[in-house]
Amino acid sequence: MLGILIVATLATCSAQSGNPTLQVVGEGKVTVPADMVTIAATAESNNENITLAEAAAGEILNRTKDALLKAGIDQKDMSSSQGSGISSFESSSKVCRTVNNNTTCDTSSQSAKTVSKTLLVRLKTSDQSRINSVLGTAKSAGSSAEIFGYGLSEPDDAVASARKAAVSDAKKNAEDIATAAGGRLGKVVDISEYSSPYISPSDQSGMVDVTSIVLATYEIT
Predict the structure, then answer these.
(1) How many other β-carbons are positioned within 10 Å of the β-carbon of residue 26?
(2) Angstrom distance (rounded) from CA 221 to CA 215
(3) Is 131 within 8 Å of 36 (Cβ atoms)?
(4) 3-state secondary structure at position 119
(5) Which candidate, 42, 68, 16, 62, places its Cα nearest to that of 188?
(6) In this structure, what are the phi and psi dihedrals at residue 34, rounded to the nearest 5 degrees?
(7) Which homologous superfamily does the CATH classification assign to the domain defined by 36-151?
(8) What is the mean pLDDT of residues 197-215?
(9) Exposure of 195 by Cβ count < 10 A (0-12 exposed, 13-18 middle, 19+ buried)?
(10) Where in the chain is the domain with CATH 3.30.70.2970?
(11) Domain 21-34+154-220, what fold?
(12) pLDDT digits (tens, 9 = 90+) for 171-186
């Protein structure tokens, strides 16, 4: 429950009836199985020379894309990142030896640069075996691969359920306020969406949360 956004004073009156009104926010959330999944396949290469590292990472990514195409993934369901991620690593060590009161030290250093390129793969499926197969194909081609996110291809039913829950939540909030003020909840004067319904990752694997938020105005009698 999101709670109360605005509570109008009891002196604020409805133009139609002269009764005071109040405004409340209601939040509704439903958790449903996802039917779409996005997989991120990342190719990495280590080299002091960035140009060579980028070329090697690009080669791995192209090999991954070819393997996914052969596995039945449509070209339109794959998109490559526009740039490259670059990280640097540097280390040094110093070893000293003392012989006949003479100390000599050898210092060595090592540096490397890691270049990463990512390919996003969108699958319209909830079949875990299919998802695992795509993950395995990407890894076999030399990339790391993981689930990047879940989604819904047809969210209308889930959105409708979330909206219904949001309206019920708003009414409960209004009833609680009206009772606390010593009044009684009247009819709804106005109701609108406070923000567009949105889909977000769920704490449950393979699921998504669909959330709706509404703003409702009620009369107090």
Answers:
(1) 27
(2) 20
(3) no
(4) strand
(5) 16
(6) -75, 145
(7) Protein of unknown function (DUF541), domain 2 (3.30.70.2970)
(8) 95
(9) exposed
(10) 36-151
(11) Translation Initiation Factor IF3 (3.30.110)
(12) 999 999 999 989 999 9
pLDDT computed for residue 97 by the predictor: 72
Residue type, 70: K
**Number of residues assigned to the chain:** 221
Q: What letter would DSSP give residue 11?
A: T
Query: Hey, what are 20's tokens?
Result: 């005071």
d(CA 146, CA 120): 10
CA dist., res. 220 & res. 25, Å (int):
16
85 — alpha (psi -120 to 50), left (phi > 0) or beta? beta
List, for residues 60-78, the tens digit of each pLDDT value.
999 999 999 999 999 999 9
pTM to 2 decimal places: 0.70
Give the CA dihedral 209, 214, 220, 221, nearest 10 degrees.
-70
AA identity, residue 196: S
